[in-house]
Predict the 3D structure of the following.
Amino acid sequence: MNDHEIALRPDAPAPGEVLRFRGRPEKNEIRDALRAAGVFRRVRLPAVAGALVIPLLGVRITPDGGSVDFVFVAGAAVYALVFGVLAPRRILARALKADGAQEEKECVVDGSGIAVLRAGAEQARVPWEQLLRYHETPDIYAVVSRSGFKTCFFVLPKRLMTAPGQVELVGALLDSRLRRA
């Protein structure tokens, strides 16, 4: 047992290691992680607000009645299209490009945090203290962190957790270290 009362995997190659998997997340898993982390919501909320406010800028009230300038209505439609539809697609495309530009990666979840290794060398390690929360979907665990205004996240696909009980073990570790959102 460790200090969080979790029985670690007895066949772990390194002391305290809970999970080690090799692979890359699929498009639907990255989309689920972005959705769970609230990235799409934070982009679409200003799109809705802007689409409602922009036409109000073109309202003219006169003694004969009121009118709305068509340019502002068209601007609101373009604003809603760009931020409500195109921006989420662009975010997903960039996440896929960033993930696909590299070769297959290895992810290690252990007592000190989460590490990503590429070509055998550690590329990134995030300690538990810097991670904020996690989201669980039927297919993934999405572990979320913030760096300034950027949302950083790790996608831990459950399909790559092949050992018996590994999904439950990772879930228990995340429950003990992070808050569930």
Remarks:
- The longest strand covers residues 140-147.
